[in-house]
UniProtKB/TrEMBL annotation, chains A, B:
It catalyses: heme b + 2 H(+) = protoporphyrin IX + Fe(2+). Residues 68-229 form the Dyp-type peroxidase N-terminal domain. Binds 1 heme b (iron(II)-protoporphyrin IX) group non-covalently per subunit. Involved in the recovery of exogenous heme iron. Extracts iron from heme while preserving the protoporphyrin ring intact. The keyword Lipoprotein does not apply. PROSITE patterns: DYP_PEROXIDASE, TAT. Keywords: Heme, Iron, Lyase, Metal-binding, Oxidoreductase, Peroxidase, Signal. It is found in: Cell envelope. This is Deferrochelatase. Its main location: other. Its cofactor is heme b. Residues 241-422 form the Dyp-type peroxidase C-terminal domain. It is an enzyme of class 1 (oxidoreductase).
Amino acid sequence: MTGSKRAESADLAVPARGLSRRGLLGLAGASVAGIGMGVAGDRAALAASATPEMASGSAEYPFYGRHQAGIVTPAQDRLHFAAFDVSAGTTRAELIELLQDWTIAAASMSAGRDVGEYGAVSGPYDSPPEDTGEAQGLPTAGLTITFGFGPTLFETADGVDRFGLVRRRPAELTSLPHFPGDDLDVGRSDGDLCIQACSNDPQVAVHAIRNLSRIAFGRAALRWSQLGFGRTSSTSTSQATPRNLFGFKDGTANIKAEEPDVVTAQVWVSAADGPAWLAGGSYLVARRIRMTIETWDRSILSEQEAVFGRTKGAGAPLSGGTEFSEPDFALAGRADQPLIGAAAHVRLAHPAQNNGTKLLRRGYNFVDGNDELGRLEAGLFFISFQRSPAQFAAVQLNLAKHDALNEYIRHVGSALFAVPAGTPEGSYVGAPLFA
Amino acid sequence: MTGSKRAESADLAVPARGLSRRGLLGLAGASVAGIGMGVAGDRAALAASATPEMASGSAEYPFYGRHQAGIVTPAQDRLHFAAFDVSAGTTRAELIELLQDWTIAAASMSAGRDVGEYGAVSGPYDSPPEDTGEAQGLPTAGLTITFGFGPTLFETADGVDRFGLVRRRPAELTSLPHFPGDDLDVGRSDGDLCIQACSNDPQVAVHAIRNLSRIAFGRAALRWSQLGFGRTSSTSTSQATPRNLFGFKDGTANIKAEEPDVVTAQVWVSAADGPAWLAGGSYLVARRIRMTIETWDRSILSEQEAVFGRTKGAGAPLSGGTEFSEPDFALAGRADQPLIGAAAHVRLAHPAQNNGTKLLRRGYNFVDGNDELGRLEAGLFFISFQRSPAQFAAVQLNLAKHDALNEYIRHVGSALFAVPAGTPEGSYVGAPLFA
Ligand code: HEM
Ligand code: HEM
């Protein structure tokens, strides 16, 4: 039986084969005993028969490596993000086992394979399939799966250190401060654990979150989740800049993977930053930002451009040039007013106003139907990666206080996670935290 | 000023240029007076700079034609569906004007152009942009926009014939019957008007619905809307069969565009069927079907296959063969039981059990976050096109009574629309209804 020989004690390595018994129980209900030996369906073979539109995005990113994938990886087009709470009664050993199971499944899916040894369709008939199957025949489409740990994982519950992690908590891993204008829904905020699944095919991203939730059964449960249908940032100079739902290019001045020095300085936690277990990792901030597009759509073009400080067409700074020209914040126009106004989003968010701070933005547009008044429930699911949460907090405080954009947006969800470094093959995600 | 010279009386033709004054007011708030002459941004030019993943699905389908696009069009990958109610106080002339405005905008977007004469970025600075802009730089990605009329459009309100259409109502255009197990949410059902926007790029589909809602401002408001991220049917033999969220191939035995006789017999309303204004049109049924995937995921493989009567891997009938083999409903296996059981979905839905009736299925998978219990709010947004609503009703009654699948699904939304024939260039969608 898959993985049944594995000891349940915490150790750094994962067994060479398969999910834990608990992971299989999550998949299987009661009847895993019948599982014999086999080989998981290889989706790549099936993918050969897929249509051209399905075959787009045949990129594949390895799960194992020095840093987790899904951070400097060129932003894929679609997102399924999920926050989990570890279920009451789950022990430290069981949490570790969950992370081990997740690691095995994530590595498998990232390589275009099903979850489990048999996958979706080749298992025994008297067991639930190990994989739910809706990604059969689809290419990996650049799937990355990125894990994070929320502040509450390091807390006590009823006076007891939940997982023996209280003393290992990074000093900076606390709830984000309250910002002016915040209108947060607790049901869309926070969480013990998070998983960011990105792919160029939404069905592949959804498949990943669904199968990981299923594996977590009894150990951790979905707290909230968010689908994003269009990336709002480029994270590589090889990508065209996409547009957000206000119709503006988004990601122009983003950190790009091709700037390794900036990435090192702004994105990765260094060994000196501490704690040691987080070295090579990062902090992930997620903000669900509702955009009141009906109001925006009634504002005139000059106001829209003034709000951002960039043109709507080319995305050039209002101080002139083309999309990638450096903005000149001093340049004045009529009546000696700066062309990029004092309340313009790009002025306030620019490193010049924030002691040189940059963020790696990796957000997605969302539309979740409409509200009772017939307004689209639309916005930006903002995600940023940074070496310290203080980077986000500094920029966001600046924006929350002064940004002209505030008239058109509302922050309704918020979460912060510590994202451990990448996982070496044979280990599991976050292992150094438990060492 | 765009379209301002046009008489407001109802006629079959639309003005050669631009949206009505009301449509522009929907876009613009108060300040349209400043609009001069110009040319809408051509997105195709911008698209040249798009990344490869953005460029996928460069297909383009003409909006004008004999039948509306989006029915036998090879099913695109993504959906944004919206139902509208015409606002109280809107007159018949205003309704016609709305349909004219929608026609112009839909034809423009279907050809990869912005809405309006100036589009998103080239308009005067003291007016709101005519197009919201988030599809700038994206190819059309096979966008189709399909309009339908709900039963309530043909009703009286407070004793008054809302739009003078009471006597033009097709006899079959009434609410669908209540089926056993129906658990419908009125907030996700029905509507005076519907728009189905399909594209291989979700941002393009969202852009279409958003701009059409905006144009409707003051005349019709969103009642409900649904995003679908993965098509669950192939409607052309050129397409691979996709999978639904239960992991099964879906669309195998669907009507295909390559069977013109079947399409004529089963999908298009004929002149003899009546009413005359609907000839060449169809009926659209939408059902929001919640799938309880957690329960499904715990059922064993043999049960899953028995429920559908097909194999999970290849999608072949349990009576043998390959995906496209005809099922043999008589063939018995062990203990003389038919290999495709009495309650199997494909047996009950097959034309053999339904007097030869077929449906053109064109549904989409959806995941709308999760519910409070941490279960994914997931399912199938079922769409079918048929010559008569009775076709759907017959099949669905059969399924609602006997289908083994009922243990795992719940119908939570329902709507029926009459879909008029295609629009000739120079006319507007549904014009014959008002002639
Ligand atoms: C719905 C909310 C938001 C929208 C629509 C939005 C949109 C934009 C746009 C259009 C740009 C200019 C192009 C670019 O460089 O990407 C931009 C820049 C930027 N934004 Fe935002 N943004 C939003 C929220 C935020 C938040 C919450 C933060 C962080 C706290 C942020 C941080 C930045 C940064 C750092 C830049 C680059 C500034 C520069 O260096 O020029 N944005 N944003
Ligand atoms: C969540 C709900 C549903 C699921 C998961 C589902 C799934 C499937 C699957 C896997 C097949 C076999 C492959 C194929 O031929 O496409 C199928 C066939 C079919 N389904 Fe459904 N279906 C659902 C609801 C419905 C509904 C509501 C109707 C219509 C009332 C319907 C009508 C049909 C028809 C007509 C066939 C083809 C039968 C044949 O000729 O072999 N289905 N469905």
